[in-house]
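Dear colleague,

Thank you for sharing your sequence with our group. We've completed the structure prediction you requested, and as agreed, I am returning the results in plain text so they can be pasted directly into your records. Please verify that the sequence below matches your submission; if there's any discrepancy, let me know and we will rerun it promptly.
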Amino acid sequence: MTPELLIIKPDCWTDKAQYLLGEPITLTLLPPGEERKLPVFKLFSLARELTCEPVWEQMEEADGSIYFKASISGLLEGYYGVEAHWEEGFVSTAFDVAPDRRKDIRYGFLSDFSSEDTEDEDIKFAVKLHLNTCQFYDWMYRHDKLIAEEDKYTDPLGRETSLKVIRMKISACKEHGIRPFAYGAVYAATDALFNRHPEWAVYTLDGQPMRFADWLYYMDTSKESPWSDYIVEQYSDAVKQLGFQGIHMDTYGFPKHVWNSKKEPVSLGKTFPVLIQHASQAVKEADAESGVIFNAVNNWPVEEVAAAPQDAVYIEVWPPHDTYHDLYSLIHKAKQLAQKPVVLAAYMKPFLKAETIEEQKAAETALLLTYAVINASGGRHLVFGENRGVLCDSYYANYAVMREEFLPEIRAYCDFAVRYGALFVTENTLDISMTATDGINEDIVFSAADGVYFSSDGEAGTVWTIIREADNRLVIQLINLAGISNRWNEPKPLRPALISNLRICILLDRKVNGVYGAAPEADGGRAKSLDYHMEIRKNGRYWIIDIPYLNLWKSIWLELD
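Please find the predicted structure tokens below.
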């Protein structure tokens, strides 16, 4: 019944990472203690409780323990929170209903495909974190020949791999509402292929073939190069033969300007949009649900590829994008270039050498803050996958394993990012973070006790305010950086200090129907009405909002008439 991983009592999870319109929603609920009564079931859309009567099924394990299945149907598109209450306690989770899985891409990873890896605990872990797209990293036989001819083989770095296991995991992903994406580098070739087709490669001005890490050759991704058709056919075969539903088109960020075998200059950034379009068309012909995601390493060449027909703008983050505000800026710029999901592959380096409990906790705080900033900025964070895995390196097989004690907190944050997904959507909203508050701006004024400072740009040691307005809603994200540096990929030995009794004063000559706040670590993520009142002054209506406390991340929103 229940996966061995993440057994917590009480607990609740969905059977899919995401639901499409018309699909029934099924939840598994583990009650506290030996509770056998049906819980009081509550369904929420933001702060609004919805009428819902689930269909219940009571199940019993061989050891006599009880669990429940709840089924819901007929929900409209949107983001939802779920709570189930017993006298002894309650459980909560979240889910979303979408017309298409491309609408909100929550990207995870898988990297272990040995013949012994026959369990699906990694898929169940992805479901509990609501990861609706999973990259199968280094699953391939070779970079230039993706599918092996035998079931068992070694991957390019010598790890034992099984096609049978890969097919099993692909099937399990689909069963659980996750699109499986196949890793595929766009221009990497082995010695054997280069020796057969040196005319497909790219060179320096002096005629030296360009190589990556002294073992892969860079190929010419121009439309005119036969390599382009060759690698797209490899992508298409991965979808047709194995059932993948997308290709992760990886690049290495270098080189940018090269020469082809005819000694003609090639600007690789200019070739990528055409290659993306070619690959996207090919995989969709194989499976209409398929797509591609292209890796714009360190934001290059995002201006060229953002609007190309890919499912998300994907950016692998490296220095000099070192600050929290850099993460925000990457997402903000990508959204301006293309109104589609933005995914940041922000690898959490603090986990690499975290051996003591103190070092692990410092890495965990860094992860929570980075995850909060990326989601509050309107993006999604590629960092979770495998069994309790967190990425800390660009070679995904080197993932770190999170502590059992940390998993409930991670799940709470992932639940929060889905439950309040409507607050993080930036389409049809205007970011007024730098024009409404801070500096000379006085439309929105924040205050708290002496020694608490606020900033609109994520300055170290402050409470960072990210603000967006829409026709009927004003959303304020509060990120607590009190006592914290502004560099996202450094250990954070101390958690930000709890801040009490914050106040927001907003010049807003509109009628306000309600003010709400929610935080991932409080009350199962449930939204609470906040105390507020209106004062009429010289320039119109001022709305005064009182916030009892800020831990690490809190979302505030005003519902407008």
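Summary note from our side: The longest strand covers residues 540-550.

Kind regards,
the structure core
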